[in-house]
Amino acid sequence: MRDQVLAWLADNVPASRINHILGVEQMAGDLARHYNLNVETAAQAGLMHDLAKYFKPQRLLEMARAEGLEIDQVMVANPHLLHADVSAIVARDTFGVEDEEVLQAIANHTLGRPGMSLLSCILFLADSLEPGRGDSPELQILRRLSCQSLAQAIWLTCDYSLQFLLKTHCLIHPRTIATRNWFLQRAKNEQLQTQRSAGGSSGGCDEQAQRPAGDGSGDCDEQAQRSAGGSALPQAQIIA
Ligand SMILES: [Fe+2]
Ligand SMILES: [Fe+2]
User: Fold this and answer.
1) Domain that holds residue 138
2) Can you tell me the mean pLDDT for 115-134?
3) From ligand 1's centre to the CA of 87, what distance in Å?
4) How far is CA 239 from the centre of its chain?
5) What is the pLDDT of residue 194?
6) Total structural domains in the chain?
7) What is the 3-state secondary structure (H, E, C) of the chain?
8) Among 64, 65, 123, 190, which is most exposed with the fewest C-beta within 10 angstroms?
9) What is the pLDDT of residue 199?
10) Domain with 141 in it: what CATH number?
């Protein structure tokens, strides 16, 4: 199966993107091992996450419509956002992937989704943070966080993406914000639980509200609603 996918990618994706895809495959497998998920499944999701990355906008729209997907105004304006959903369709129809969690992880890799599965979280982070994305201090922080708290890592990766999108005057898809808010809340809840189990604590929402609010970032071509460059992650955002 892996060789079959690689052969397909060689015909449909530039070599530079294949390096990114292999980086995502590797990092998704590494994170899966860290979080006791099936490594092979996560790596397979990584290998297939960008199958439709270079499909033309019209093809993305046609395939999404044929599948009955909801296509909102931001997607009409930027059909490239549909490459995640369409990559899942290609994985199913061309490579026979039936595991719904793998297909969902592929479909969620750009915009995320509130409450998404552990596998989706891992693929979302691997796509943004694989080594080919660069080695800025912000990315180094996010990579460390991805092994400590998935919720914080996803929240702050969304912030990193949002910062980039704002700076480059790109459209922002509402699901990026919904994902960010959901994982921000989850990270705060995790922190409260940690404080309670550590014995008492003052903290809580009031204290959290005094902390600087997050900013964001992403990768515009994927359009990124994910990161590529962008500004520094304020250390004060890191709760851990
Ligand atoms: Fe992608
Ligand atoms: Fe990607």
Assistant:
1) 2-237
2) 97
3) 9
4) 20
5) 86
6) 1
7) CHHHHHHHHHHHCCHHHHHHHHHHHHHHHHHHHHCCCCHHHHHHHHHHCCCCCCCCHHHHHHHHHHHCCCCCHHHHHCHHHHHHHHHHHHHHHHHCCCCHHHHHHHHCCCCCCCCCCHHHHHHHHHHHHCHHHCCCHHHHHHHHHHCCCHHHHHHHHHHHHHHHHHHCCCCCCHHHHHHHHHHHHHHHHHHHHHHHHCCCCCCCHHHHHCCCCCCCECECCCCCEECCCCCCCCHHHCCC
8) 65
9) 76
10) 1.10.3210.10
**pLDDT band (50, 70, 90) for residue 102:** very high
Q: What is the mean pLDDT of the chain?
A: 87
**How confident is the model at residue 197, as a pLDDT?**
86
Distance 153 CA to ligand 1 centre (A): 18
